[in-house]
């Protein structure tokens, strides 16, 4: 049991490496904008414009103000960490794939404006988790998806900009992100961990503990 707890603790800690590193970069870029009074909107997505194609890669890292980045911080941290915790074998390729695909869809289909922020990728991550949990119906995956819905169910209102008339919300980024998350979930659901894998992991740890049990130790 002790080895299982140690293994899960290490796995949980490792799952935060990527999101924390990216958040540091996001906050650094936000600080540069604030401190030097520069505008990095040119690193966003400008649909169907060559000068806005760079945003397919960089727009996720750029935010318009401190409120914008603060609002994205926790969901980005939790959803990305969940990806690396539950799907360590495919996490990096799924993460990069959804990052680029959601950016590409935004560049192809969004309205003619500059689009910045991590919200599109956040929607991809959320709908990826939810889609796989619905298909696989594994207890741990469903529990995490329920946490997403419980804490961030209001994300659904992000598809309807008329509810936020005073805010410049890129609902196209939310929509494209959700579509990408569903598509990736449908494509990768077979590679999600099964209940058998979870139980086998527990059983292996219990066997290791039994090997060190006092009744099996020689005098």
Name a few traits of the molecule.
single chain; 219 residues; mainly alpha; Rhomboid-like fold; 9 helices; 66% helix; globular; disordered C terminus
Characterize the structure shown.
This protein has 219 residues and is mainly α. The chain has a single domain (2-209), classed as Up-down Bundle (Rhomboid-like fold), CATH 1.20.1540. The chain has nine helices and no strands. The protein has helices spanning 2-15, 17-36, 55-58, 66-86, 91-109, 119-136, 139-152, 171-188, 195-211. Helix 2 (17-36) runs antiparallel to helix 4. It is globular, with a radius of gyration of 20 Å. The two termini are 23 Å apart. 34% of the residues are buried. Residues 205-210 and 213-217 have low confidence and may be disordered.
Beta-strand content: under 5%
Low-pLDDT segments: 205-210, 213-217
Query: What is the CATH H-level superfamily?
Result: Rhomboid-like
Number of strands: 0
Average pLDDT level: 88
Supply the number of helical segments: 9
User: Radius of gyration, Cα only, in angstroms?
Assistant: 20 Å
Roughly how much helix do the residues carry, as a percent range? 55-70%
Distance between the termini: 23 Å
């Amino acid at each position: 049991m002790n080895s299982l707890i140690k293994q899960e603790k290490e796995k949980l800690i490792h799952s935060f490496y990527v999101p924390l590193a990216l958040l540091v970069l996001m906050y650094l870029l936000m600080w540069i904008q604030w401190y030097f009074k520069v505008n990095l909107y040119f690193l966003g997505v400008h649909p169907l414009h060559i000068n806005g194609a760079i945003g397919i890669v960089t727009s996720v890292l750029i935010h318009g103000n401190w409120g914008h980045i603060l609002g994205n911080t926790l969901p980005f941290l939790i959803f990305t960490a969940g990806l690396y915790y539950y799907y360590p074998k495919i996490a990096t390729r799924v993460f990069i794939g959804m990052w680029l695909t959601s950016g590409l869809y935004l560049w192809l289909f969004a309205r003619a404006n500059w689009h910045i922020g991590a919200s599109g990728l956040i929607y991809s991550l959320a709908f990826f988790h939810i889609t796989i949990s619905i298909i696989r119906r594994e207890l741990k995956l469903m529990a995490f998806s329920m946490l997403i819905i419980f804490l961030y169910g209001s994300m659904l209102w992000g598809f309807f900009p008329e509810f936020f008339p005073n805010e410049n919300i890129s609902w196209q980024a939310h929509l494209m992100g959700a579509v990408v998350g569903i598509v990736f979930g449908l494509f990768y659901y077979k590679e999600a961990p099964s209940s058998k894998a979870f139980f086998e992991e527990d059983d292996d740890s219990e066997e290791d503990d039994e090997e060190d049990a006092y009744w099996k130790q020689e005098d």
